[in-house]
Amino acid sequence: MTQNAMTQDQMKSAVAKAAIEYITPKLEKESIVGVGTGSTANMFINELEGIKHLFDGAVASSEETAKRLQAIGVPVYELNDVNEMAVYVDGADEFDPRLNLIKGGGAALTREKIVAAVAKEFVCIVDDTKQVDILGEFPLPVEVIPMARSYVSRELAKLNAQPVYRQGVVTDNGNVIIDVHNLDITDAKGVEEKINSIVGVVTNGLFAKRNADLLLMSTSQGVETFTAK
Ligand code: 5RP
To answer: Rounded to an integer, what distance in angstroms lies between the CA atom of residue 184 and that of residue 198?
Structure first.
């Protein structure tokens, strides 16, 4: 490691702090913050403690995130009880120049997608290992109703890709995950729609129809800001 090189954890922490700086001026006493899932989102939760007096509460994209928010004293609301969400902050497994994302490495993709849909602004926080030109090096997670697992795998294989059942993982919604390897994602919106139309699929981890509005990327040199092209 060179003298200035940062570890991935240091980069995650830096981008979490940058997200706090970005959202702070937008918060009001009644604001609800959507909070994502994963190690970068966890760093964001740690930082959120310092500004918890500035907003009303949060909606969590997973049971794990809800526990972490409660542990730092942030009220957690059910999404159905919330009319408006100022901002949603979450990590990603990959992002492209249009700020289309692959998410779901932590198996929370469906709730993440729902919370992102409700939020006025989706701020994605990543380190520079997540940047790609075309999505798909990271296997695409697909959440599937358990009884449809084999059928959906056969349908996914027809897309010239390799579906792999994520053994031992049950989502917060009681479903299973199939990770799709070597999928051609040159048309991210098209692939998102196509996979979601397979019966038995709950949703897939492509965030192209609802991509990020803003992305903060941590590098060893500092945090870069991207808006969708
Ligand atoms: C969880 C996710 C995460 O945002 C994604 O996996 C990135 O995680 P990390 O911040 O740990 O790299 O989509 O379902």
So the answer is: 17
